[in-house]
């Protein structure tokens, strides 16, 4: 049987080995974590049911299949900056590239989103002064949004700005409309021709403090004359077209 001999290392060698081992561990750790933020991250993902909502506008009352307590969860998502409360009971999903930054959707898009949450995106049409603004005929921001809907609804006051949206009962299937891209997605907007007829027929619609005549003239210049004449006859708005043409001549 062999005798077991105990190997005794000098103290300075043990210390040297300890330092080398520590250095290698730190070097490996640095190499592994280079460029990575090691701070703990807390993610609060938006469920696909909310992210894919029409015009990215959602209501807690419609999220019962997503959350057991929708209002509490919506409040939490808003606190994390993932939802934007636009009106009482209505929230907009914040674009991913705007999370953590100051963001607020345009009035016309926000109003169309609210209406879409109520009636569906294909049943609402931005009209009147709001349509003229989206067509570039009204340069400054408005305080009232006007949306055509199939059934009358009380006006809704927005909570993120001093503004209100008003609903106008129309046969939206008969309105001449086109899709225009917004920050919240495509929205149906009355065409320039339809917008001219609507504004000339009801110049005070929306109670906006703007020069409706100048807006009509600007949109009329972009309109197809044959198309607007056909619409005027079909919708019994010939007198409105004549009014718009008179404004353009003065």
What amount of the residues lies in strands? 15-25%
Order of helices and strands: HHEHEEHEHEEEEEHHHH
User: Per the principal axes of the C-alpha atoms, what is the gross shape?
Assistant: elongated
Outline the low-pLDDT stretches: 1-9, 11-42
| SS summary, helix count | 9
Work out the number of β strands.
9
Derived structural class: alpha+beta
Radius of gyration equals 30 Å
Strand order of the largest sheet: 4-5-7-6
| Helicity range | 25-40%
N-to-C terminal Cα separation, in Å?
122 Å
Q: What profile does the largest beta sheet have?
A: 4 strands, mixed
Mean pLDDT: 85
Characterise this structure.
It is a single chain. With 250 residues, the chain is α+β, with helices and mostly antiparallel strands. The chain has a domain at 107-190. Helices cover 39% and strands 16% of the residues. It is built from nine helices and nine strands. The protein has helices at 11-33, 48-51, 70-79, 107-119, 128-134, 192-201, 212-220, 225-234, 238-249; strands spanning 57-58, 83-87, 90-93, 125-126, 144-149, 156-157, 164-169, 177-182, 185-190. The strands form three sheets. It has a four-stranded mixed β-sheet. α7 crosses α9. Mean pLDDT is 85; it is low at 1-9 and 11-42.
